[in-house]
Structure formats: structure tokens, C-alpha cells
Design a protein that fits this description.
The complex is a heterodimer of chains A (271) and B (284). With 271 residues, chain A is of the alpha/beta class. Chain A has eight helices and ten strands. The longest helix of chain B is centred in the first third of the chain and has 31 residues. The N and C termini of chain B lie far apart (46 Å). The chains are: A alpha/beta (271), B mainly alpha (284).
Chain lengths: 271, 284
């Protein structure tokens, strides 16, 4: 029932009521995950605010993809809790997944189907009626500049265009949280900049909360929130300038280097 | 001033309407159909395989194997007529295994993720996928029946209709089996093993090519094995239904196996067990 949910975005709050703070778009609280004996995530906690761009910075193998698999419920949470706009991903996955759009690191478009067919299939998986799905597809394809290619096979697209298509697809059901896992991997400089710019626009224009996993420092802007993930642990989190200052560094690159070298001896000590 | 933080879930609809469920089902079947149309080789090979058995194997075997009058047949029949239902089931067996192959492929290629992050219940999504695969296999079987008709395999006209529910049920059973197997396959390369350890034993140790009483004469032990093989019952269910009759035992076995395989597959794709059971390091 929807009636039991108070309108979370109503922050005007009258004097008699407690101030309703904005529900985090994503909250990850004390999440640990193991593959057998190997611990992939260790007590990971952070939040993504609505209408914010949060960069999840970590090297390959830091646990980013495991974290994404947990948030999208491909794996069940072993310990800790993950909420999407307050909906527990384990207990009410339907509500949580409805608010979530995701672009995985490996390409997940059907190469033999057309752009439009890929979008319509995704819409059907979200129970969006055909007529509505068509309208939304045309609109999104126009926005990513691929309207004239709607009937072409995805196979004919460039890497950057495929990524744009995947982002459009992730937005089809109008999610309020968007996850992107290394979305610019394998793209050239221009395509990378296009994608990053496009996603930032979604944050400012549509108020979507974005979690952007990357290992590329130059994709992080000073106004972003940052979560530094290293060997399954969160080493730092907060607005970018704060993380840099706390690490006693001059930029993200140096902060990351300092944080990870500090963390590594500690890890080998308890190993 | 103290600010009480209240984290109330954002308002969203809970549950799904019947329309949403139906849209989802139609979408999944539609995609499966499109993929099938794009893979013409798959359709042709699905058709050529049973036809080779029918035109060559059955023609050669006709003289070797005499078939007495056994239900559901009411007259002496040619060997070709006898093996037609077995070949129909074989089409479905291959199709079931092929869709499991495509699930492993989808998983490796990431398409499976697209399916599983849908907000609809995961069991329902897998059921839709199964139904879509079954629909494709039923089409293949009817294409085979059309060609077989020119080869003098002419069941009663009503049989074409009465066989449909049997085909749907056997298609579901074999698809669910494929899905269950796919959850255990870690990599695409392992699929050759499925051919050797699933398709061939299931097909040969069944009543598809020879009636069980014949098998029993040769080896009672093998006859028991055939009797216990769910594929035998898929074949018999189809054979009887094609002649407008119902084989209750086969119906019970196929129905029961469908339920068991499907529950098994849904459990195997349960998120708590990790939908990709790769070793550590597979997922970075």
C-alpha cells in the first residue's frame, strides 16, 4: 500500500512534525560479502543523496562490481543492509528495483535486435505498456541523438553509441537512482567526455542520484561526493574537497595514493 | 535546534498489476521470437535433425523392426509413424537444451542481468523465459509435422489440436530441465558435456526409437531405466495426444517433473546463492 508511506520529499514540514530529511537515494550500511573464504567487501557503508553525483573510486578488484551485484539484487546481501529510497532491497525488491536504473560494465544490449527493440524489451520487463514504451523510446533516442538509427541493429553502433543506448535504456522506467559501473571503459577520449557530461546533466536537470564507479581520476569533479573503495573496504567518503583535505593531499590522485598506501600495511598485518 | 531525522521510504507503488505481468510475459516471448527469427540456421537445423532421422534412419530401420499393434495405434503402423512422436519430443529436447545454452550465453554476455534486474518477481521472470522457449519449440514441432505429413505420417486431423497441450507441457518440462542444468554450468565450453550426458542418454534410453516391450525382450534392466526416464513419458504423452488419447501415467510423470525441475531452477537462480556462481575473481 502506498498510503503508509509519508511523502518523503516534503521537507517544508510544519512545526508540529519532525523535519523529514530527504531519504537517501541509496544507503549501504555495514555490508560485507564473501566468496567462500575470500572477503570481497568488508563493512562497507555510504549514502548517495538524491540529485547528487557520487563517484565510487577503486582499482579493479576493489569490490565495485560485487557491490553493484548486491545493490541490483543479483546476489543477496549476506550481512548489512541496502536501501533504495528507503526500500530494503532484500525485503521489498520490487519497490526498490523500480526506482533503480543500472548500466553494467559488460555490455548487456542485444546486438542482433534494433535499438528500438532493445528499448521495448526493457520496457516490457518493467511492465510498461507498449504504447507508452514506444513514446518513451522515441523521446530517449532523440535525446541521445540516435533517433534516426532506431531501426538499425545495435551491432552497427560504435562503443560510445552503445553506451549511450544503455544509459537511455536504464532511464526508460524513470528511475531516481542510476548506477553506472565503469561506463566509459574502452571508449575514446571524446566518447568518454560525452558520456560523463550526459550523466552529469541527468543529475542537474532531472534530479537523479548517480553512483558512478570508476578507476579514472579525471572523471571526478570537485563538486562530487566521493567514496574510496580499496580491497573491499571504504577508506574515505564525503565531498571531494573534504576527502582530499583529510588525506592531506593536493588532489584526488594524491589522496587516493596516500589512502591506499596507508591501508595496505594494515591489511597485511591482519592477514 | 535538534532535527529528528525520519527516513521514510519514498512513495512508490508496491506490487504489480495483472497488466504489468502480461506486458512482461508478452515482451519476453516477443524477444525470444525475434531472436529465433534472426537465427535462421537454428530453425533449419532444428528441422533438419528430425528429418534426417525420419528420412534415413527410419527408412533403413523399417525392415529390421516390426511394430505390433500397441496403444494408441489401432492398426499395424510403419516404423516412420512410430518414431514421429519421438522425433517431435527430440525437437523439444534439443530446444530445451539450446535455450539453456542461450541462458549461459546470456549470462556470460550480461543479457541475463537485464532480465534479472526487472522489478517483477524472479520466479515469474524465469517462468516467462521458459514459456517463451516452449512457444518456439512448439512452432518447430508443427513445422516438422507439416513436412512429415508429406511423408505419409498422417495422424487424425483432430490430433494436430489435441497434441498442443501435450507439447506445451513437455516443452515446459524439457525447458525447465535445461534451465536447471544451465544454472550449474559455469562456462559455455562445458556445454558439450550436456550433449553427451543429457541429450544422448535421455533420447536413446527412451521409447522414442523403439517400443518398451521390444527393449524389455533385450534387457529388462534397460527397460526399467527407460520407464524411469521422464523423456519416455514426454514421448508417450505426445504419442497418445497425437491420436486424441490421454496417457494418464505419462501426464502425471511429465507434470510432476515439470514442477520439480521448475522449482529447482528457480531455487538455483535464487539471489542468495548468487546468480552467477563463478569462482572468486570471476567478478572483479
Amino acid at each position: 500500500m502506498t498510503t503508509q508511506n509519508a511523502p518523503a520529499l516534503d521537507t517544508t514540514g510544519s512545526a508540529t512534525q519532525p523535519v523529514l530529511q530527504q531519504v537517501p537515494a541509496l544507503s549501504v550500511a555495514g555490508v560485507s560479502h564473501s566468496y567462500g573464504a575470500r572477503k570481497a567487501l568488508n563493512d562497507v557503508s555510504f549514502v548517495v543523496k538524491p540529485a547528487s553525483f557520487t563517484a565510487l573510486l577503486g582499482l579493479n578488484g576493489a569490490g565495485k562490481s560485487t557491490l553493484f551485484s548486491l545493490i541490483t539484487r543479483l546476489f543477496a546481501v549476506q550481512s548489512g543492509q541496502i536501501n533504495i529510497f528507503g526500500h530494503d532491497i532484500g525485503r521489498t525488491p520490487g519497490e526498490a528495483l523500480r526506482l533503480l536504473g543500472v548500466v553494467f560494465q559488460p555490455r548487456t544490449v542485444d546486438l542482433d535486435l534494433s535499438l528500438r527493440q532493445n528499448l521495448l524489451y526493457h520496457a516490457a520487463l518493467h511492465g510498461i505498456s507498449r504504447r507508452e514504451a514506444r513514446a518513451r523510446s522515441e523521446e530517449l533516442l532523440a535525446r541521445i541523438g540516435l533517433a534516426d538509427r532506431a531501426g538499425n541493429k545495435v551491432r552497427d553502433l560504435s562503443g560510445g553509441q552503445m553506451r549511450r543506448l544503455e544509459i537511455a535504456r536504464a532511464l526508460l522506467h524513470r528511475p531516481r537512482l542510476l548506477l553506472l559501473d565503469e561506463a566509459t571503459v574502452g571508449l575514446d577520449v571524446k566518447a568518454r567526455a560525452d558520456i560523463v557530461g550526459h550523466v552529469r546533466q541527468l543529475v542537474t536537470e532531472q534530479g537523479i542520484g548517480v553512483l558512478w564507479a570508476t578507476h579514472l581520476f579525471d572523471e571526478i569533479a570537485p563538486t562530487d561526493d566521493l567514496v574510496v573503495l580499496h580491497q573491499g573496504r571504504v577508506l574515505a567518503r564525503g565531498p571531494v574537497p573534504q576527502v582530499i583535505a583529510e588525506a592531506g593531499a593536493s588532489d584526488v590522485n594524491a589522496a587516493f595514493a596516500r589512502l591506499t598506501t596507508q591501508a595496505s600495511p594494515a591489511r597485511s598485518a591482519d592477514a | 535546534m535538534t532535527v529528528t531525522t525520519v527516513h521514510t521510504p519514498a512513495p512508490t507503488r508496491s506490487g504489480f498489476s495483472a497488466g504489468e505481468y502480461i506486458t512482461c510475459l508478452i515482451g519476453i516471448v516477443w524477444r525470444e521470437g525475434l531472436r529465433f527469427l534472426h537465427q535462421r540456421e537454428r530453425f533449419v537445423s532444428a528441422l533438419v535433425r528430425p528429418l534426417v532421422w525420419l528420412f534415413i534412419f527410419a527408412a533403413g530401420f523399417r525392415q529390421v523392426l516390426g511394430i505390433s499393434i500397441i496403444p494408441p495405434y489401432e492398426t499395424y503402423i510403419l516404423y516412420e509413424v512410430y518414431i514421429a512422436p519421438g522425433l517431435m519430443a527430440m525437437i523439444q529436447l534439443f530446444n530445451g537444451m539450446q535455450s539453456s545454452l542461450s541462458m549461459v550465453y546470456d549470462r556470460e554476455m550480461g543479457n541475463m542481468r537485464t532480465l534479472l534486474v526487472s522489478p517483477l518477481p524472479r520466479g515469474y521472470l524465469l517462468f516467462c523465459k521458459l514459456l517463451a522457449g516452449t512457444a518456439v519449440s512448439v512452432l518447430q514441432v508443427y513445422a516438422f509435422l507439416v513436412i512429415a505429413w508429406f511423408w505419409d505420417i498422417t495422424p487424425p486431423p483432430m490430433g494436430y489440436l489435441t497434441v498442443l497441450p501435450a507439447l506445451i507441457l513437455s516443452g515446459l518440462m524439457l525447458g525447465a530441465l535445461g534451465m536447471l542444468i544451465s544454472s550449474g554450468i559455469k562456462q559455455l565450453e562445458n556445454f558439450a558435456g550436456v550433449m553427451n550426458f543429457v541429450i544422448f542418454p535421455m533420447f536413446f534410453a527412451s521409447s522414442a526409437l523403439y517400443p518398451l516391450w521390444r527393449v524389455e525382450e533385450g534387457s529388462p534392466w534397460l527397460a526399467y531405466l527407460c520407464e524411469a526416464n521422464p523423456f519416455t513419458h514426454a514421448v508417450e504423452l505426445i504419442r497418445f495426444a497425437l491420436y486424441g488419447k490421454l496417457n494418464w501415467v505419462s501426464l502425471a510423470v511429465v507434470g510432476g517433473c515439470t514442477a520439480v525441475f521448475m522449482i529447482g531452477a528457480i531455487l538455483a537462480y535464487d539471489p542468495s546463492r548468487g546468480f552467477v556462481r563463478r569462482g572468486p575473481g570471476g567478478e572483479a
